[in-house]
Design a protein that fits this description.
The protein is α/β, with parallel strands linked by helices and 342 residues long. It has 10 helices and 14 strands.
């Protein structure tokens, strides 16, 4: 049972831009029935590449779900290699603003090896490359972009100090800060308090709180513990079980949507994109979480990372009817070419 209260999570600048500060990687996907044992050569089933990185994935998700030109601005860094050019081109084709995406001379772009086994579970091995050298220039870019923003999306792939400073700047500007605490890192004191909304998955919630999370009951305890440093909203993601929300707006379990699972990569990023769009549009928190759940569900029903991000029409159809439908086929027909699976 959800307990409701007035909407307290409202950006100062409604319908402003969504600014994303974070990692930009080229994803290298390998599918195999199992992983080779030490010293063994074992043939895989499929290989593909596609744009990735938690920051870039969330930017593409927000741009696709928003459907508004200029709604999303990406801040980050790629290398001066062929991957860097391709990554920027892909984000731009999906409608992400990339004027603040810089190219680091002499640096390789970030990459992530993503291994998918017969159970459709993913094992991710990133090498962050140019992402690791983000710093003062990205802070200056963020300071400019945040002046016309509603929501800031951040993760923990790039410098924690840079992320902290961007979060603090967003707070000064009255911009909602949405933090995805992945990958798990050692955090400085006061870091989590700079987030308005924190949305860990089960593993991350357990790392943050020490509470085992296997379902809504554990998620409820973890979400309450996550809020103790002063976070306004904690959302513990539960995969196909949906998520658990703890806030002054409402507290309760929000069920997920049943869809065929193709690959789970980037589902959390789709969730973040859907959440940011709804918040930027001034929707109440519960509606925003429902939109986020729908985006995450649609993402796992397709292969790839950025290529799996749903359109606005797909999300609305799932929210209205509870199952993916014709909007997915129309979206696939209109989707621009990109380097990943289709």
């Amino acid at each position: 049972m959800l307990s409701a209260a007035p909407n307290l999570i409202t950006p100062r600048n409604p319908r402003g831009r969504i600014v994303v500060v974070g990692g930009i990687n080229m994803d290298l996907f390998i599918e195999a029935d199992r992983f080779p044992r030490p010293g063994e050569t074992f043939e895989g089933n499929h290989f593909s590449t596609g744009g990735g990185g938690k920051g870039a994935n969330q930017a593409v998700a927000a741009a696709r779900i928003s459907g508004r030109p200029g709604a999303v601005e990406m801040i980050g860094q790629v290398g001066d290699d062929i991957f860097g050019r391709e990554l920027v081109q892909t984000m731009e084709r999906y409608g992400v603003g990339c004027r603040y995406v810089r190219r680091a001379k002499g640096q390789a772009s970030g990459v992530a090896l993503i291994f998918s086994d017969a159970t459709k579970q993913n094992h991710v091995l990133p090498v962050y490359g140019a992402n690791a050298t983000c710093g003062d220039r990205q802070l200056a870019d963020a300071s400019r972009a945040l002046k016309s923003a509603s929501v800031l999306l951040v993760q923990q792939e790039i410098s924690i100090d840079l992320t902290r400073r961007c979060m603090a700047k967003a707070r000064e500007e009255g911009v909602l800060v949405v933090l995805d605490p992945a990958p798990v890192r050692t955090l400085p004191e006061g870091f989590l308090e700079l987030a308005d909304i924190l949305h860990p998955n089960q593993v991350e919630a357990q790392e943050l709180t020490g509470i085992e999370v296997t379902g809504p009951e554990g998620a409820a305890s973890a979400a309450k513990a996550v809020r103790r440093p002063g976070v306004k909203v904690a959302i513990v993601k539960l995969g196909e079980q949906g998520c658990f929300v703890d806030s002054d707006d409402f507290t309760g379990h929000v069920p997920g949507f049943k869809v065929p699972v193709v690959a789970t990569v980037a589902a959390g990023d789709a969730f973040a994109g859907g959440l940011a769009v709804a918040l930027a549009e001034g929707r109440p928190l519960r509606e925003a979480v429902l939109m986020a759940n729908a985006a995450g569900a649609l993402c796992v029903s397709k292969p790839g990372a950025q290529d799996s991000m749903p359109s606005r029409a797909e999300v609305v159809e799932l929210l209205n009817h509870g199952t993916p439908g014709k909007a997915r086929e129309r979206s696939r027909a209109r989707r621009p070419g990109s380097p990943g699976p289709s």
